[in-house]
Amino acid sequence: MTQREAIFPEGRHALYDIHGYTAAIRSGDLLFVSGQVGSREDGSPAAGFEAQVRQAFANLQATLKAAGCGWDDIIDVTTFHTDPENQLAAVLKVKDSIFTSKPYPNWTAVGVTWLAGFDFEIKVIARVPQAQTVS
């Protein structure tokens, strides 16, 4: 059986405990990151859509870092949008500032009607660099 290891970003562990889930699970050399929203440390949404997107990416980066990963380790991305037609330009602006070189990760965008008070969520699968894998 493959070992699973819970990964939590620094300073946000209590929020995950309150809601009963793990920020990410490392299994072998793969990292499965739960959906990250644009929440500040207290759990409240960042003000404005683009700020939520930037904060969601910042929260994702903190989770990746906790597992020894970075942007280049991401293989697959899924994003959730409450108004994709009107939000896509802002999301692409932030995304394009982070993923600047090929090959880009796979990407699936999904329109949804509810994200618990948020308007954007991002989840990823990443490969953990060789030196960081759990035996």
From TrEMBL:
GO terms for cellular component: cytosol. Pfam families: Ribonuc_L-PSP. SUPFAM superfamilies: YjgF-like. It comes from the Bacteria. GO terms for molecular function: deaminase activity. This is Enamine deaminase RidA, house cleaning of reactive enamine intermediates, YjgF/YER057c/UK114 family. It comes from Roseibium suaedae.
